Amino acid sequence: MTKSLDLHLELDRDAGFPGRSLESALRESIRAGRLRAGSRLPGSRSLASDLGLARGTVVQAYAQLVAEGWLVTAPGSGTRVAEVLHDPPGSRRQPRPSTAAGTMIELRPGIPDLGSFPRTAWAGSVRRALATASRGTLDYPEPTGLPVLRAAVAGYLARTRGVRCDPDAVVITAGFTQGLSLVARTLYRRGARAIATENPGLAHHRTVLHAAGLTVTPLTVGADGADPDDVTGHAALLTPAHQHPTGVVLSPGHRYRFIAWARKHDAFLIEDDYDGEFRYDQRPVGAMQALAPERVVYAGSTSKSLAPGVRLGWFVVPESLRRDLTSTILEAGAAVSAIDQLAMADLLAHGDYDRHVRRMRLTYRRRRIELADRLAEVTPTPLEGIAAGMHALLPLASVAEERWLIRAGRRQGLHLIGLHGNGYWQDPADERQVAALVLGYAAPPDHAWQAALSGLGELVHQTGRQLVHPVDPVGDTFDPCRP
User: Fold this and answer.
1) Is 78 left (phi over 0), alpha (psi -120 to 50) or beta?
2) Comparing C-alpha atoms, which of 445, 420, 443, 442 is closest to residue 430?
3) Is there a contact between 271 and 235 (Cβ–Cβ < 8 Å)?
4) Crossing angle, helix 338-349 and helix 147-161, to 10 degrees?
5) Beta-strand (E) ranges in 97-161?
6) 367 DSSP 8-state letter
7) 264, exposed or middle or buried, with CB in 10 Å at 0-12, 13-18, 19+?
8) Average pLDDT of 304-318?
9) Angle formed by the axes of helices 176-189 and 319-332, to 10°?
10) pLDDT digits (tens, 9 = 90+) for 64-99
């Protein structure tokens, strides 16, 4: 039953999860323009009474929409509609499945447990940083980063990843992607025109490299990682500790051959150590950079360890590249907030970063085991990839099966990613490439994790029958060619 409200909401009481229904109703009303910017919403007690909901449900819905930017709050003025764009009259369409909180359970790779962000520790670091920061520290920051954070990062990488560097080699960036763009532009200015990247690999990285003027060539990924026989050009981008998305480790032999190639051709290797802290079955493989600091640009960030929104990364740069990279940073105005750098340095100095990583390592290890156990109940195909990171690969029989699972998952509230539908393959039209789901197991909040496991297990269990008797779970005819 749907009840029309004076607040111009349409609340579906039969959908379950009343808080999510309230969020969706408010969001749609704002998007459509029925609730105008600046409109004051009823107090939580009043709205809860009108809707027959618990006050806590309304409070949580308001808080979620404030976090998403739909609402704003200020002391003494209550909760109001934020200044957001809305759909003009007549343009309303059925909403597409969204990844906004409360609408889908995220099983995408590369997203940590955002609810476990160490808010208290981070807030304490910000307070201490502001209390002790000198006037000069709050001036325009140094382009390569504050010395205090560069020193802290150098020490951290040396003891946890075996990186060989001093603080002068560390460059602080606003995350990995910004740093990759800056390094790529620097290489182009030095004469590089082509870079090899892993296939499969992240499409966005190829986009960034193309934007810097570089031609991208594929490196075939096998059981030993990227194949050095394929490498051409003037640089290569690798994920040696935990290849994304296949989850294999670059073998020692392949590491040495890549380094030999770089030395012979005066080329550089970019080592994306995106989740090197998270290895569950043994000690993490050390950084490739330690084998050839003069040829390897090592890169890491807080995107997987803390949260992507922190926007902090670090690149350990060979001496021969530093001056040119600094010039690129200055031209781009790419310096990072001094306050965030001071907070991160404090988080490292007080051991809070290490404690958070250890805590999350235990959480992600447990989730990976639970994911593997659940899938083992419904399919004989085991997960692929080492026990590390925040994702695993589930091989599938065909691209048709991959597409069916993604569609069916979307309709059941699971956001799934496949190798073919997300640009991992450099030639996405070649359906002879293997199919698989790239399953991220870190993002779902604790209260949704078991539901995610159950829903995924049921879908995988259904796929075999569906491919023999092709009717999907919501009644549509199964079309293997439909995306």
Assistant:
1) left
2) 420
3) no
4) 40
5) 105-106
6) H
7) exposed
8) 97
9) 110
10) 888 788 888 877 778 888 886 554 444 444 434 444
